[in-house]
Every structure is written in C-alpha cells, then in structure tokens.
Amino acid sequence: MSLPHAILTALLEKPSSGLELTRRFDRSIGYFWSATHQQIYRELGKLEEAGLIRALSSAQPARGRRKEYEVLPAGRAELTDWVGRSEDPKPVRDALLLRLRAAAVVGTEGLEAELDRHLDWHRGQLAEYEDIEKRHFPPERDAPGDRIRHVVLRGGIELERFWIGWLTQALAEVGEPPPAPRPR
Amino acid sequence: MSLPHAILTALLEKPSSGLELTRRFDRSIGYFWSATHQQIYRELGKLEEAGLIRALSSAQPARGRRKEYEVLPAGRAELTDWVGRSEDPKPVRDALLLRLRAAAVVGTEGLEAELDRHLDWHRGQLAEYEDIEKRHFPPERDAPGDRIRHVVLRGGIELERFWIGWLTQALAEVGEPPPAPRPR
DNA sequence: ACCCGTTGTGCAACTAGTTGCATAGCGAGC
DNA sequence: GCTCGCTATGCAACTAGTTGCACAACGGGT
C-alpha cells in the first residue's frame, strides 16, 4: 500500500500530470518505488475520488487532455500520518540470490554471464547516484529536508556498493574451477 | 516467475510434502524467496501437471492426506536451464526508503520508532545468519556446492549489515534536532 | 465411542503490479 | 485541410502474491 503515498510525495514536491509523474518516477522516486504509467493513472483516479488530491484548472476533462493534480489538505494529512505508521518489513524476494542457490544444486553453467550483467547494471546505477549526489548535495550545504533526502540517496549508494561487492565475490566462486580434491 | 524454481530447488535438496516445504521456506530458502503455504500448494499442483515433479507412493490422493513430491528429470532440466537464463533486475520497491523520502517533505514525526523497530529486526536477522554460518560453514571446509551456498549466505549477512549501518545513519538524522540556523 | 487439537491440503476472493492496446488532442510538414 | 507522429490518458485482461476460511485425516485423552 505504498504507491498512493509515493504519488502524494511526488505531487507535494510539485503538482504534475500523470505523464509527468511517470517520468519523475523513472528518475528519482522510482529508484525506491517504481511504477508504470498505468498504475499511476489508476491510482490518481482513486486518490481523486477519495478526496486526497484534485485536478487543477482545465474545465472539460476529456480523454487525450492533460490533467494536472495537486494535493489537498486531506492528502497531506494522510501522508503525514503514514510516515509515522508502522509496517512490517515485507519478506525478501531476490531472484539472483535464489538463482545462485539453485546453482549450488544443479551447477553454475551459464550463470557467470548473468552475474556480469548484473554487476554492470549496478555499477551504472551507482555512477548515476554518485552523480546526483555531486549535483544535489555538495558538502555542508544541506537544508533540513535535504539532509533527509541525502540519507535516502546514501542508502541507494551503499546498497549498490553492497551488490557490487557481493557480485564480485560470487563471480570469484562461480568463475573459478572447483578446488582440486584434497588427497585422502 | 521464480517461485516454481525455488520449489524445484527445495525439492531437489530433499523430496517433501507441501507443509514441509512451507516450513523450509520459513527457514532457509524463504530468506531469499518467501512464499505462503497457499502459493506453494498451488504451484505444486501446476508443477505436477506440467510433468516437472510427481507425487510419491501413496495410492489414493485424498484431501487431508500427506503427499510427498519429487523432482522428475524434466524438472531438473528446467531448473538447470533457468540458472543460466538472463532476467532483467526487477525494479526496486522499498517502503522504508520511500517513507523517509516522504518524511523529507512532511516531517519525520513518529518515524524514529519505526526506524528503531527495523533496526532491531535486522539485527535479529543478522544474528540468525551468523549463527547459521557458524553451524554450517566452519572455516576451510566447504565442499563444492557448499561454497556457493556460503556465498549466498554471505550475501544475506552483508545485506543485513548494510541495513543496520544505514538505519543507524538515518536515526542520527531523524533523532537529532534540526541544525541551528546559521547566522545570516 | 466420541470429542478435540494438530497436521495437512486446498478453494475462493481479494490486492498489487504488468502488458498490450485503444483512442483523443495537438502541432508540424506538405 | 490532411496525414503523421508525438503527447497524454485510459480500458481490459493477465500474473503473482495475500488473506481468510473450509475440511479431511489422525492420534490421543476420557
């Protein structure tokens, strides 16, 4: 149940249309909570119906017509409330760790390429985050809200570093031939 | 599409009934790919129908009767194939990072407790993994398949360490009062 | 003989996310 | 003034995962 809150957050930062939101999800918010345009349009409809946001200006709502939304006080209240709510951590589901576990049973054939691919991807992602950090958070300049945003970004950065480190270890095990059998 | 492969892996390690699988998912495999008993029973049905696994022995299949499954050659082949297949990394969805981002906009009220709770949980998980490591992977004793399994476990361990480190940082930002306004 | 808790399997209905496609409006090029 | 491509919104059908509950078998205990 986080998508509506992701959208409220994005809309508070800047009122937007569905497509704009989609694009912003592809960059910033989507790094931590991705969503397709479909999900976003549907959720915008629900949020509007629930009275948490409203469409701005443009009189005739028509199909191909751009619609901007802004957050209503009720929406802000809901988001504020949600921030303090407690929610159990969702169970982990990581396909790559699972795959490696399967490889422990049926052999690692073909796995190296996949690990390489992921390593590349995470390196790319890390570079992107570090770039954002350089541009948005130069040293010693964080305003109150920015300090929090900076922590979030550091989370992303450290997560990518974790993956890079782990994938490197995993590749060492997978790439390497099995150890010579010990004399018995 | 990883659940069937998780089940195949588990069944290759040891033929089991649905409930047994459920319990094993709660311990080992489920650390990386969790599943409820519902999902498991449904998937077992599909896998059997697809001819990848089969029920052992017990003649009359009846409702409240225990059914053990084992993997057929086709199932092993499918799993072997899957290990080498490439799959795009699934988009990240992390509620906690999102929540902190929302807090940057509407304030961090009530968030500290939640971060504490998560910190506790991750510390517990880390302790559990470290315990497993001690019991299952004593130094210098890894058989071929075990080396891979050990890498997977180390992934879990390092991931928990990442969260613990990050949550500690986040708590420092959230707990601390906002910095005194600089003189202007 | 019967009840009762535990073990084990399963259906049904729901929520969230994905994929593929339809369709309206809008401006530029010819 | 018509067509084409881009922007923008949206429906419908599907897949995966969750939740709540039903019900059969089995092994005591009384």
Structural summary, described in words:
- 2 copies of one chain form a homodimer.
- Helices cover 62% and strands 5% of the residues of chain A.
- Chain A is mainly alpha-helical.
- Chain A folds into 2 domains: 3-84, Arc Repressor Mutant, subunit A (Orthogonal Bundle); 95-175.
- A 3-stranded antiparallel beta sheet of chain A has the order 1-3-2.
- In chain A, helix 2 (18-26) crosses helix 3 (37-49).
- The radius of gyration of chain A is 22 Å and the shape is elongated.
- At the A-B interface, helix 1, helix 4, helix 5, helix 6 and helix 7 of A face helix 1, helix 4, helix 5, helix 6 and helix 7 of B.
- The structure holds a DNA duplex (30 and 30 nucleotides).
